[in-house]
Amino acid sequence: MLIISSNVSIPESELDFSAIRAQGPGGQNVNKVSSAIHLRFDIEQSSLPDFYKQRLLHLNDQRISKDGVVIIKAQSHRSQDKNRLEALSRLIILVQSAGFVAKSRRPTKPTRGSQLRRMDKKAQHGKKKDMRAKPSLD
Length: 138
Description:
Blueprint: E1 2-3, E2 9-10, E3 15-20, H1 28-32, E4 36-42, H2 50-57, E5 69-74, H3 80-99, H4 112-132
Helix pairs in contact: 2-3
């Protein structure tokens, strides 16, 4: 059971793991051992609440395919178990980010005092520039 929050979790049966060979340098170990992990998670077929499903499907993330399948590839560790844990943690972070609702912004107005201070400062700045000008011959 993969726990996302206090009331949302994903059963292990909905997660599909496959071990593949890791890319990049690494010598003989890379050529012999399948240590990288592909994690596949079908959003539409999952037991997640509809709120999470809709938010995940509308998320603009390259890890989510057009079919609504999350594909995470973890290959940074030499051990298959560590890569599996990393893939799971990335999935948890992804689902949690979809569940986060941003606080709505309440528009505010500057106070009358701050507006007056701003205008006074502008006037002072203008006077300072006027004092720098060459005196007129009038």
